[in-house]
UniProtKB/TrEMBL annotation, chain B:
It comes from the Bacteria. It comes from Ancylobacter tetraedralis. GO terms for molecular function: transmembrane transporter activity. One of its GO terms (cellular component) is ATP-binding cassette (ABC) transporter complex. It is found in: Cell inner membrane; Cell membrane. Pfam families: BPD_transp_1. Belongs to the binding-protein-dependent transport system permease family. HisMQ subfamily. Residues 17-205 form the ABC transmembrane type-1 domain. The chain crosses the membrane at residues 17-41, 53-74, 187-208. It is a multi-pass membrane protein. This is Polar amino acid transport system permease protein. Its main location: membrane.
Length: 196, 222, 258
């Protein structure tokens, strides 16, 4: 469940993050929206955001499963961080490249699609994988709304076995292994692309 | 919307805010103090000092703060470590952040040019004097931006301690929300509150950053 | 027999498999200026850094005022000198680096005064007074309160010279002190160095400034591939028929003439 929620969170988060980033380049209103979006999701503790969202959905009488709500929340938050990471990378790409594309007759859409995004995503890979490990750990917080992910499951086992040290240490071990796998994968991808 | 329902809770909210700030500061101080020796071990030329430091850093960074808090609060008694939620929470926060601070310090020390240390050696300064007068201050300046960032992150993470019933702002607001049947409104107000708090901390941090790094930027006019 | 200020005998130094100094013997006399010249990679900076033991050497002797630097000999055995002993030796050897190596978090006067406080045990007031006097000497008393980032390269290097001078060294080492400077700033640093030489400071200078070497040096040593190829009075720069030195000077003139 931990893996499932984290992965879905990324799958939702990365596209939204890209959208948020692009919105930020479209005029004053777009820039303002992106600024507030990023500032809110980065400025409010994750736990509080989860609690807000979980109480917001019933409040507007919108009924989805707890898991779907958790994925939505994690996705929205990840999107804010992703858009910031991508923005940082975007600034590192010389403006001459967009100018060259424009000179060759690329429209704005084509410039984004073929020139900027592929580079930005590639250059952002290490930071994105780092973000993914943070998300993995953040997913432990959805245990508070009762979703049976790793932390919640271990809590439940502790409640019946009364062996908190062993159970929690095993859970920590699983998190550590998963983080290391992600970080290693990120490094490998980075090296793979650096070689070309 | 009836704001008067909040009035009886004002005292609790203020106390919750106090706990939040206290946990943040205590956790940050603990992490900064703990991170330094870990960073020094991590950079030690001796393998048997370096390896445990690496393992510590990787293990802590791979484990969610919530789980660390559970381990100390729930698992502590098994080691005869019976802690109230507050000290357990602060300890968890300090351990959690110490790994991040250790890495920040390490980057800082690596940023000090070798020549600056050689200059101190050529003047006959002892290793301790060199560390205190040259390496440490230069490293601290180099890492101020990451340090400020880590402190901002930490201020948000204190909310996680509400789960082990540290009576911080998040804890009190949740309680208020449940008792007044206005959970969403309370929590949304809480979110705005944190947003404001974090913005203030970030702004102060940026100002502090400019203050301590002014001497490495050439003055624009004289 | 008068004692040499620096006496280097049969010095060997290697980085891994590469021998960067082989069988170097050289002396520097009190109140004289010795210039080390040679192509890059010839080992001249390494040789200089062996004199205050920033670089360890494997074999041979480096003696300053008759005392072996960096090692202690006991019963024919040689072991690394203690840190305290090494610091005490370095105290009398001032060093100026190519990259200045001023500490960016201290002002000019802070850079000069701090070692006086930490190493020489001066009070703050004494240290400030001495630091200001030495800054005055290098013409920078007015910049005492400036941070290094707000000084030009030439000014930074003069502060670095002041920092070393304030310790009252018996000997000053200069490691390409003008190589990192813009051409128009080289003059002010060389001027300070000439003044220092005329006051009788013992100096060992690694330099690419042949004009300075010809004018200020009492002795010039030309190194190539880790060996001293020729050593003698400054007029070897004009009269030598040693082919490697001639070729080195030829390249130098081609680069600097237009």
């Amino acid at each position: 469940m931990t893996v499932y929620v984290s992965l879905l969170g990324v799958l939702v988060g990365v596209p939204i993050g890209i959208l948020v980033l692009i919105t930020g380049t479209l005029g004053t209103a777009g820039r303002l929206f992106t600024k507030i979006y990023v500032s809110y999701f980065r400025g409010v503790p994750l736990l509080v955001q989860l609690l807000v969202l979980f109480n917001f959905l019933p409040w507007i009488k919108f009924d989805i499963s707890a898991t779907a709500a958790a994925v939505t929340a994690l996705g929205l938050i990840t999107a804010a961080y992703v858009s910031e990471i991508l923005r940082g990378t975007l600034h590192s790409i010389p403006p001459g490249q967009s100018e060259a594309a424009a000179a060759l007759g690329y429209g704005p859409r084509a410039t984004w699609q073929y020139i900027l995004l592929p580079q930005v995503i590639r250059l952002s890979i290490p930071a994105l994988f780092n973000e993914l490990t943070l998300l993995l750990k953040s997913s432990s917080l959805i245990s508070v709304v009762g979703i049976a992910e790793l932390t919640r499951v271990s809590q439940n086992i502790v409640a019946t076995t009364f062996r908190p040290v062993e159970i929690y240490l095993v859970a920590a071990g699983i998190y550590i292994v998963m983080s290391q796998i992600l970080l290693t994968a990120g490094r490998l991808l980075e090296r793979h692309w650096a070689r070309r | 919307m009836d704001l008067s329902i909040v009035v009886p809770y004002l005292g609790l909210l203020a106390s919750g805010f106090g706990y939040t700030v206290f946990c943040w500061l205590a956790g940050a101080l603990g992490a900064m103090a703990l991170g330094l020796p870990i960073a020094l071990l991590r950079m030690s030329p001796v393998r048997w000092l370096r390896i445990p430091a690496v393992l510590y850093i990787e293990a802590i960074r791979g484990t969610p703060l919530l789980l660390i808090a559970f381990l100390i609060y729930g698992g502590g008694p098994a080691f005869g470590l019976l802690l109230e939620p507050l000290p357990a929470g602060i300890l968890a926060l300090a351990l959690h952040a110490s790994a991040y601070f250790a890495e920040i310090y390490r980057v800082g020390f690596n940023a000090v040019p070798r020549g600056h240390v050689e200059a101190a050696a050529s003047l006959g300064m002892s290793p301790v004097a060199t560390f205190l007068r040259v390496q440490l201050p230069e490293a601290l300046v180099a890492v101020t931006p990451s340090m400020v960032n880590a402190l901002v992150v930490l201020s948000k993470e204190t909310s996680i301690l509400s789960i082990i019933s540290v009576p911080d702002l998040t804890y009190e607001v949740q309680k208020m929300g449940i008792e007044t049947f206005a959970s969403f409104e309370s929590l949304f107000a809480l979110a705005i509150g944190y947003w404001a708090l974090v913005s203030v901390i970030s702004t102060l941090g940026a100002a502090f950053e400019r203050r301590v790094t002014f001497h490495i930027h050439a003055a624009r006019s004289q | 027999m008068t004692q040499h200020m620096v006496e280097i005998r049969h010095l060997h130094k290697r980085f891994g498999a590469v021998e960067v100094l082989s069988d170097v013997s050289l002396t520097a006399e009190t109140s004289k200026v010795l210039c080390l010249i040679g192509p890059s990679g010839s080992g001249k900076s390494t040789l200089l850094r062996c004199i205050n033991f920033l670089e360890r050497y494997e074999a041979g002797d480096v003696r300053v005022e008759g005392e072996l630097v960096g090692y202690e000999e006991r019963g024919g055995q040689r072991r690394l000198a203690s840190g305290a002993k090494l610091r005490q030796q370095r105290r009398k050897i001032g060093m100026v680096f190519q990259q200045f190596n001023l500490w960016p978090h201290m002002t000019a006067i802070g850079n000069v005064a701090d070692p006086l406080i930490r190493v020489r045990g001066f009070s703050k007031a004494q240290a400030r007074e001495r630091a200001l006097a030495v800054l005055e000497k290098v013409g920078l008393a007015a910049k005492a309160a400036s941070y290094p980032a707000n000084l030009s390269g030439g000014q930074q290097q003069r502060v670095a010279i002041a920092r070393a001078l304030a310790m009252e060294p018996h000997l000053m080492l200069f490691d390409e002190p003008t190589s990192a400077l813009d051409p128009e700033l080289v003059g002010e640093v060389l001027q300070v160095m000439r003044a220092l030489a005329s006051e009788g400071m013992t100096m060992v200078v690694v330099t690419h400034e042949m004009g300075f070497a010809a004018g200020a040096a009492d002795k010039i040593a030309f190194l190539d591939k880790g060996r001293i190829v020729q050593c003698g009075p400054p007029d070897i720069l004009r009269k030598s028929d040693e082919p490697r030195l001639r070729q080195f000077l030829q390249t130098y003139h081609e680069r600097n003439d237009f």
